[in-house]
Amino acid sequence: MVTVDLHELNLKPNDVVLDAGCGLGRHLRHLARMPELKIFGIDKNAWALRETSKSMETMPDALSKDYLVSIADINRLPFADTSFDCVICSEVLEHIPKHEEALKEFVRILKPQGTLVVSVPRYFSERICWFISKDYYNEEGGHIRIYKKKHLHKMLTKQGFKCWKINYKHALHSPYWWLKCLVGLKNEEHLLVKHYRKFLEWDIMKKPRLVRMLEEFLNPVMGKSIVYYLKKG
Description:
alpha/beta
């Protein structure tokens, strides 16, 4: 499940890209299918990074094989100033207490006119999850805040970024999380949750045209994520 529309980034051969908070590497694998990029991924989860390395090593269709994944703190990135053409930070800021420090680090490591893409859970969908289930926001390592669209936009522009596009993604995933909140976040065997998860997995693998069209239609209304595309001013 890719949240960032990578074709929007206009990446060129030899561009240097960071996925900050890469997790299991969903965006890294798609970046690797673009030619001759230099790709970095950082996360604090050692297990996730090991799994990411395995999946990157065995990719049969990788066009960019110059990559590195490593443990790092998003608030203290181990990279030189102005060393990246693009930074992706997808579904991360809602987890970290000092989110503005992370944004300052992105400013520091991005080249002039470099691209930053930030995605977070959308206010409407997230508020429903918080309303239904206290466990949703009390889980260790879970979401510690809900962003309003204007508030996050203001926070990003305050750091000197210029926003050129806002997009919404994953509308069909919102009901899945609402269901999980209703029946219990760890109740994966509940009939409705089980069948809806199978539907989402089928959609991700097969990408049926009608379902893709339905989600694109629903994204502005009930998208699970909001995505900001920005340039360093």
